[in-house]
Amino acid sequence: MRTEEILHVQNVSKMYGQLAAVQDVSLSVRRGEIVGLLGPNGAGKSTLIKCIAGLLRVSDGTISVDGFLVRTPEARGSTGYIPEVPSLYDLLTPWEHLQFIALAYGLQNWEAQATELLEQFGLSDKRDAFSGELSKGMRQKVLIACALLHQPSLYLFDEPTVGLDPQAQRELTRQLLRLRDDGHALLVSTHILAQIEPIADRAIIMSHGRTIAGGTLAELRETFQLPADTPLEDVFLQVTE
Predict the structure, then answer these.
(1) Does position 3 have pLDDT exceeding 70, yes or no?
(2) How many domains, in total, are found in the chain?
(3) Residue 132: which residues within 8 A CB-CB, separation 6 or more?
(4) SS3 9
(5) Are residues 28 and 139 in the same domain?
(6) Same domain, 73 and 176
(7) CA 221, CA 233: separation in Å to the nearest integer?
(8) Domain range for residue 62?
(9) What is the pLDDT of residues 83-139, one digit of tens each?
(10) Residue 223 falls inside a structural domain
(11) Which of 84, 90, 100, 220 has a Cα at 20 to 30 A from 238?
């Protein structure tokens, strides 16, 4: 596994008035690594990911991507974000969304890869349909395809399998593993622990805005004195309860 750190989060907090959505969180993701970001509803996972993506300003602490502070052009160019809610421009087609990404990032000779991505996610026949006519699952596939076209150093996935059919979930898993093997860094927030367990190199568990545990599955088992065959879901329940 490569050791170069792509994402560095240092003592980050995010306040909404008196409410601390994220409290003094520090974590990192290295090149060639998938890290699962786990936690119950309201743990602060989505808020943290939005801070890393530069969509929210942190109240305290620092975040850097590829050595650049978030919200700078360099950090934005190195980050791909796939939100939980698949928001698209209703009057643009999937192909036009891909074209928009290519223009925004100055991509060259992108058409063949875009065509392949549409085929992989079963969207070839929807290439020229208005996005407003697509199902939630199909809209999610378009967002994922757009992020894959960009090929940044860091990928942020917030509940990426929500709304995806089993075939698309399997294809997404293959894509995540390919991205890791190609040297990208991936932070994946999910509630579906059975899907993240086989592919995550490490897991970080959040609760009430804080990180309460982290490490490989073997390290988590050892920390909480659990049997060596304990599945991630049982580890998660033990930690959060």
Answers:
(1) no
(2) 2
(3) 88, 90, 91
(4) strand
(5) no
(6) yes
(7) 11
(8) 1-78+154-213
(9) 888 889 999 999 999 999 999 989 999 999 999 999 988 999 999 999 999 988 889
(10) no
(11) 84
Residue 204 in 3-state DSSP? strand
62 and 109 in a single domain? The answer is: no
pTM as predicted: 0.89
137: which 2 tokens?
């699952």
Distances (CA, A) of 166 to 5, 43, 66, 145, 162: 32, 27, 33, 17, 11
Alpha helices, H only, 34-165: 45-53, 73-77, 94-104, 111-120, 136-150
Residue 16: CATH number of its domain: 3.40.50.300
Is 234 within the bounds of a domain? no
Say which amino acid occupies 187: L
144 & 185 share domain = no
For the chain, how far is it from start to end, CA to CA, in angstroms? 32
In total, the chain counts a number of residues equal to 241
In a domain, residue 225? The reply is: no
Is the distance from CB of 95 to CB of 119 less than 8 angstroms? no
pLDDT top residue among 76 and 35: 35
